[in-house]
Amino acid sequence: MADRSNRVAIIALALSGAAFFGGMPAVAATADAGVQAEPEGADIIVTARRREETLQSVPIAVSAVSAATLERRQIDSVAQVGEAIPNMTYQTGAPTGTGASTPSVFIRGIGSAETSLGTEPGVGLYVDDVYIARSVGSVLDLVSVDSVQVLRGPQGTLFGRNSLGGAILIRSRRPADRLSGSVELKTGRYDRADIRASLDVPLSDTLRTSLSGMRERRDGYVRNLDGDKANGNIHREAARFVAEWQASDMLKIDVNADMTRIRESAPPSVLLGLVPTIPGTPVPSSIQEISNLQAGCFGGSVLADSGNPRCIDQGAILGPFRTLGGYSTDNAIFDSQGSRPFGNASRIDIRGVSGRLEWTLSPELSFKSITAYRTLDAFWTSNSDHTPNPGIETKNDQDQKQFTQEFQLLGKTGSLDWVLGAFYMHETGDALNVVAFPQVIFRSGGGFKTDAIAGFAQGTYRITPALNLTLGLRYTDERKKYDTLANQQIIGVIADPVSRTFVDLRATPIPFVTGSTPNLAFTEFTPHANLSYDWSSDLMTYVSYSRGYKSGGYEQRLAPGTPTIPSFRPEYVDSYEAGLKATAFDRSLTISAAAFHAKYKDLQISVVDGPAPTLTNGGDATLNGAELELGWRPVRGVTLTGFASYLDAGYDRLTPRAIVSGIRLGSRLPSTSRWQFGGSAGFDVPLTGSLSLRPNVDWSYRSAQYLDSANERLLRQKGYTLVNGALTLASTAGWSVSLSGRNLLDRTYLVSGLAQYNIGEIEGQYARPREWALGFKYQF
């Protein structure tokens, strides 16, 4: 009821605000319009090579979305940006994650859907040059953002570890030099009630500050038939403070602080199907024999048969937006192993502070220091059996802290532009994973520590005025340590498949990790070479080679009988690329194209050959693809864009463990569509001297893809088309009213999934259905 009241209030404020401000005379011409118009013919600035360059001049496959474009398309999350990027998959809802706040990100077929602290992402995320190490909570809401850049292909030299698929760079808007601000209210489907606000306050001619924040509320879209709250809701707040001090003509210091608070329901997973369990699986890997649970109800269990009430009936498969997923784990038992109650929840707290120093030593030499400290505290539950009866219920706790320090020295010596740098990261964390079955609880986890240092150098030499050679190299030294919990245990009553009796372990829990955990150490060189040629001021071509590296780690999700903590090796990619960038028609048309061939080695593949999905080095793969991006401003006030991409991603070699888990040489890599297409059309139509109408429509198509490594039939998402639209009425007086919609065709499609054959069930998460929003914004 409170959310409904919030929505009514926001609609009233929006309409009354439009009426009030609409009656005001237009302010001075220097006032901001309600929605920023993209400057005609403006060059987009990117920092793909650690220095500011125009998008069309940098010989790298990079896509950039400006603040004006974000607002014109009513994009408020980095996840929505991924719909318009070739060969990129950015889906919220990692299979073992927190729901809408944890992504699965893949670029050119390389990425990760894992959430464990023992693993690493495959696509690097940087906010104001600060590396975000963990995927949990990284579906960032775009609060006061200046631009989003997506670098495709390995970025191992300048951006380093875990950027072998590519990198996402988010740049915050810098404080204004005058008192200014904005407030935006938005309502919509699912009792949406959002507010965003910012205030820029210059404290002096040299010191500027900015404070921005947001609050989002949306009901869930997966109905719980047991009466619990719907899953998939959005309930979060975020704030950001920026101070920028121009200490002198040569020295600038920035300080940034941010926080995010998320209090949402469990992931919106539903049951997709029930399958026979794998026959003959040895104890203790076979969950149905340990816990007397067999999800499918139609296989030969040792202690269960189709009449067992713990089996899941076929009637529990209820479609994409309904579940029976109640929680029944005894809180008293559960709380004896954890500090938080068991229930339907996803809670995340993120805090960060960073400092940036830029010192111009001379016109040709500058120094930059970036220091940051961030913390993550996350907790989420899930009901994998999707029934209100005792089945499979899990709880995850993560507590992570990271400190990073980077130094950069950028110079220009004659025909050589160069950058030298050093990077250090210290990361610590604790993880607890609890899986509750009808009569037994598995508890695993431990403490993690990572220390990584790196040094890098890259230079671009102008051989001739048109020919440029870039060479770069990075050295990384990384050390990891994992201290297991002293009480990794089976707790409760388990079934003994040999004697066919039950064993009571509540008084004497059994530890199931018996060996020591070795420390891990990785060292790696990641080179880069690029040769570009400017045929004219409107045409540039390039060829390049890059090597990417993703560090190895530990498997945190454990099962009984594990002698030592499993670990896995790093994975590597060697990528060869050729591309061109061109402009035409007085620079109103821009063209970017690239083709690539990559050898992907020692893939860290998620396999399900035991009680839980685990990572292993499963083999090698080859990636071949091509990309095209177009932008055209045929006349003033009209902006057209389009993109297309192709990706052929298949395995060359598989390990025996990967084969046993169901992966075949003919399988496609997960979350990779062969074809992607898309485009947008935006218009700025003057109505009066002070009013303009700004319609925008964008669409994208993605061909079929599998959401798991084994290409499970139920986790195949067929091709689909998405259409989004926005209509904005803007005034030079600073106000605007917008009506927008996402997934206007109301497509139903999967964004993640998990096949757990050993318990006989397959679950998945569907994207949010069609949504509309009405917004009002005022800038001053």
Automatic annotation (TrEMBL):
GO terms for biological process: iron ion transport. A motif (TonB C-terminal box) lies at residues 763-780. CDD domains: ligand_gated_channel. It holds the Pfam family Plug. Residues 326-744 form the TonB-dependent receptor-like beta-barrel domain. InterPro entries: Beta-barrel_TonB (IPR000531), Beta-barrel_TonB_sf (IPR036942), Plug_dom (IPR012910), TonB-dep_rcpt-like (IPR039426), TonB_rcpt_CS (IPR010917). Its main location: membrane. SUPFAM superfamilies: Porins. Residues 1-28 form the signal peptide. The keyword Cell membrane does not apply. Belongs to the TonB-dependent receptor family. This is TonB-dependent receptor. It comes from Rhizorhabdus wittichii.
